[in-house]
Amino acid sequence: MTKYIFFVPDKLAKYLFADITLDDDFDILCIRKSLFGKVLIGSRSPIEKLLKKLKVLDYFKNKNFCYELGKYKKLSSNKNYVFVFVAGAASVLPSTMLEKISEKKNVKLALLLMDSFHASSPTAIRLRELCFKSFWEKIYTFDKDDSEEFCFKNIGLYYYSASKLPVQIKETNNQSDVFFVGGLKGDRENLILSLFEECEKQELNADFVLSCMNNEQWRNRKFAKKITYIRRWLPYQKVLKRMSNTNCIIEVLQKKQHTQSIRYFEALVFNKKLLTNNPNIFSLPFYNSQYMRYFENVNDIDFKWLKDREKINYGYNNEFSSICLAKMIKADFEKLNNRKYAMI
After folding, report:
1. What are phi and psi of 323, to 5 degrees?
2. Is the distance from CB of 103 to CB of 68 less than 8 angstroms?
3. Which of 151, 179, 252, 256 has its CA 20 to 30 A from that of 101?
4. What percent of the chain clears pLDDT 90, i.e. is strictly above it?
């Protein structure tokens, strides 16, 4: 018997992968980095509750109730394990810890990249260092270009669970015309700000939430009275609440990113218009020219279309559920095991 544990970095990822728990072979464990630089595992829950849920690892604990993944005593000897580290969950762990875990005979490690390999976020930079370590049995990516360039396996579009989101999906009054949320990174900063400026000129109700990546960006905030600036990331529950109250979601990809972001999935789930600079939008499933528009610069945008309210229904029914991804990974590792037995 094999148990598949998905290690995720935060509540956002936990929501995205929630559907995998529909199958008893899969489970989710949240890893995040504390302010003190320690790796926390389920830090808000007692360790006994965690172990009862997972039935996988024993941890040493300290007086601060911080649990380090590498300090386990033993794994169940009558089970095999596949640990799937989702992007940021791997980035907070030292490679020596991951290597130590992989040395267990009944443990295999997989890495799931949720961002473009060439992205400029701190997580992406760290993962570029980890990607080519020998302890990964498989590496998965949602970016088709990355899969072709580095021979990673492309997971397609299977990573958004719509069934357990923390905000109810329902019709709203669309209080804002457009909504954008994201970090000032990836050489897209000027485009984001020029887009907001043009929305202001066109008298749109534009709800922009921008995360500053450094102190300089914080000091040089433009339109600071009208844009919501934050130093960290907006909790996903708040993202969804603002999103459910907008007419159109804006997606601005980072430079060198060629694949859709989470904004595409949210537009489908919440039945919202989507304005995107992703040139591949036309070939994506559920693309609808009436509700989705592409732009390269602000001169391409039909601002009247952004304002117009329409009844939208993409007909999406959780086709991109993460349970499909989990079953794909399970099938891959079953093939690997069968191949090894055939060679004996």
Report:
1. -65, -30
2. no
3. 151
4. 43
